[in-house]
Write a structure and sequence with these properties.
Homodimer. The protein has 185 residues and is mainly alpha-helical. It has a single domain, classed as Ribonucleotide Reductase, subunit A. The protein contains six helices and no strands.
Amino acid sequence: MQLGFQTDYDKDMLHTVAYVSFQELATRISHRNTGKISDDPICEELLTRVALDENLHMLFYRNLLGRALELEPNATMRAITDVVKNFQMPGHGMPGFGRKSVNIALAGIYDLQLHLDEVLAPVLRAWRVWDLETLSDDGQRARDELAEVIAETRVGADTFTAKREEYFTKQIARGIEPRSLALSE
C-alpha cells in the first residue's frame, strides 16, 4: 500500500485509460462477489457500496476512451488490444497472488469466464470496436489480434470451468461441499 499501484502503462495515456476501463469493472465485480459470499450482511452492504463506486470510475474511463476512439481510432485500438492481451489485476505482483487468484476463481468471485462475459464483452460493446469503420490497416490488424485474444481467452475460460467442475465433483465424492458463488444477481 505504501508504494501504491502502477500499471505497466504509466507513461502512456491511451494504454492507461484502456487498462483502468477494464480494471475498474473487474474490481467492481470482484468486490461485489466477495460481499455476496461473505456471510456478513454489513460486509456485503459495504462491498456493494465500494462496487458502485468502482462502477462510476469505470464509466468515466470507458467514456473517455470512447472519445479517444473517435479522435484517434488506430492508436486507441492498439492500446485496447495490448491491454486485453496483457491484462492483470492489481495485486498481481504480491507474494502468493497466483494461489490466491486460483482460490478467488474457485469461489466464483472472479475468473476468466466472468472476465470475458462481464468485463471485456460489455466494455468492447460500448466502444463498438467490432463495428468501427475508421480503422487503417494498422488499426484493423490490432482489432484482428484482439479477436484472436478473445477467442484464446474463451478457450482458457472453458478449460478452467471444466476443471473447476471436475474438482468440485471430486470434492463432493470425498464428502467435502465446495463453496462456490452462485453468480445470479
